[in-house]
Amino acid sequence: MTTVTQMKCACPSCLCVVNLTDAIQKDSKTYCSNACADGHPNGSGCGHTGCECSK
Question: What's the CA angle centered on 37, arms 51 and 45, to 5 degrees?
């Protein structure tokens, strides 16, 4: 049996893979940051190195 400990951020344009223990859960989806979970208000990205996501 395999236990999943990491998952890709649910934000479609985000490249981040997040540890489930550190993830932000919203609407049964897993996000790497509040910016992703909140739908990128003001066009803010997640701020993680190498990721330029925003909606």
Answer: 30
Q: Which amino acid is at 17?
A: V
Q: Output the average pLDDT for the chain.
A: 93
Structure tokens given for 49: 């190195």
Helix (H, G, I), strand (E, B) or coil at 41: helix
Is residue 54 very low, low, confident or very high in pLDDT (cuts 50, 70, 90)? Answer: confident
Q: How many alpha carbons fall within 13 Å on the CB side of residue 30?
A: 15
- How is residue 12 written in tokens? 């479609």
Pick the closest to residue 26 from 11, 44, 4 (CA basis): 11
Q: What is the pLDDT of residues 28-51, one digit of tens each?
A: 999 999 999 999 998 899 999 999
